[in-house]
């Protein structure tokens, strides 16, 4: 979210302050002062436009505004009109008008440069995350933003309660924290589709871990997913998609961990790779639960909590606000309906896999 090549009083163009600024950027200024002294008039529209144009040209040339103001003040001293009847107010008024119009043109050119930089950056980010550009050209463009796509990179994505863009305080807060901790360590922080995105070298997991911590705090409890390190420009796309898929899995499975790693959830994409096979398993193993009073959902929730509790009946009962006896009755009812005993290690794997499939496929709310 930092812009390069846009000069102001505080960045690279300001080094011109110690040098003579080309006379071309104050051309006609002495005549304006002389006319103001002689007639007391204000600047004409054409003169104001010429000052704005010179301001734009100076900004585009990379000159610092502080140096340019200094040049105008120096020219004011050199070309101060002399003689009887000179109106100080008129001369100072003309100088003020000239500087104001010049600064207006300068700032207008800077805003245009920023908008152009934003558009260029956004185009690059879209190409980087979606892989829509020639990889060789993309790698060259990436160097401008501190990324060396010949190495492996990993991507972390943070999803908050609201959508963010790069101008919002939250991304800027996270960026300041990252720069303060790591400096400019080939990190790209941006936003995409309302989410915070951090791209970092694949061997610098501490960067993404810290990003996750800061994003969680700045988004007031948002969830963060971290993709696996992947090589090359195409690897950024793959890691980004892994992070997005991990966020989607967390939503569908109801996972409450604030930070999730794609590497820890690889089993889920494997389970869902053959959707029809998973649907058949869910129907075969859990379909009979529909016969229960109240339908399948209450008993499915019981199984979900039971497995999440490590198959410890007392803990599962506590989480469900049930007595252990009531939980045991439910498990027995499941055994009777499905023919599979949740407490039997042989049956447990099938039932637990089916429960995961049901959560991924949103069964029984969405029948097959």
SSE inventory with pairings:
Blueprint: H1 29-39, H2 45-60, H3 65-78, H4 88-130, H5 135-143, E1 153-159, H6 169-182, E2 188-192, E3 195-201, H7 205-218, E4 223-226, H8 232-253, E5 259-261, H9 267-272, H10 275-286, H11 297-308, H12 313-320, H13 324-338, H14 345-361
Parallel strand pairs: 4-5
Antiparallel strand pairs: 1-3, 1-4, 2-3
Helix pairs in contact: 1-4, 2-4, 3-4, 6-7, 10-14, 11-12, 11-14, 12-13
Offer a quick outline of the entry.
The chain is an alpha+beta fold. The protein is built from 14 helices and five strands.
Detailed description of the structure:
- The structure is a single chain.
- With 368 residues, the chain is α+β, with helices and mostly antiparallel strands.
- The chain has 14 helices and five strands.
- A five-stranded mixed β-sheet has the order 2-3-1-4-5, sandwiched between helices.
- A hairpin with a 2-residue loop joins β2 and β3.
- The N terminus is likely disordered.
Give a quick set of tags describing it.
alpha+beta, five-stranded mixed β-sheet, 14 helices, 58% helix, elongated, disordered N terminus
